[in-house]
Amino acid sequence: MSVSIPLSVRVPQDDFEWLTSLDIKGANTPSDKLRAVIQLHRREHDGSQSYELALSWLRDVVQPFAREVAAYEHRSSKRSEVVAAMLEWVPQLMALLASEHIHTDASPARARQVEDMLLQRSVSLLSTLLRLGITPASSTYDDNAIARQLPRLGELIDAVRAAQPQS
């Protein structure tokens, strides 16, 4: 168990008002809230050292949105696979960006490794979204959401194919 050390700080009035207005579960006093802010920032900092910690932290960051989505989907009896995919894949991409490092003296192999990890996850997200276009009625809030985007993606895919050297 760690020892608590008293800390006295002076903060500007607007920072104090902001701190006291924060709604942090289990933190009622300014001291409780300051400890919670320190813990949150420490989690963010530690996440830059580890993919797993970064992913956990980022999932917590999007959790309020995920709860709102779940409540909306329950009330409306509608589900969006687009939103579900984003909630799954975007924190993974962000966790990679937050935790991986390419230092100035990194080897080209290291840079390629990070690039490949990001590309793999990005392609997985894109594949997930494209698969939604296969079925006539996609699981989205707007039945035509995917269909409206497919022509533009198709044109882009065709342009990429045309730009590739013939083998």
Brief account:
By secondary structure, the chain is mostly helical. The chain has six helices and no strands.
Give a written overview of the molecule.
Helices cover 69% and strands 0% of the residues. Helix 2 crosses helix 3, helix 3 (51-76) runs antiparallel to helix 4 (81-99) and helix 4 (81-99) runs antiparallel to helix 5 (108-131). It is flat, with a radius of gyration of 22 Å. It has a domain at 79-161. The mean pLDDT is 90. The longest helix has 26 residues, at 51-76. With 167 residues, the protein is mostly helical. The protein is built from six helices and no strands.
Main sheet makeup: none
Q: Hey, roughly how much beta strand do the residues contain?
A: under 5%
Q: Pairing-aware structural class of the strands and helices?
A: mainly alpha
What count of helical segments does DSSP give? 6
* Overall shape: flat
SSE order in H/E notation? Answer: HHHHHH
Radius of gyration: 22 Å
Topology readout:
Elements (H helix, E strand, L loop, with lengths): L12 H9 L8 H18 L3 H26 L4 H19 L8 H24 L13 H19 L4
Label this structure with key terms:
167 residues, 6 helices
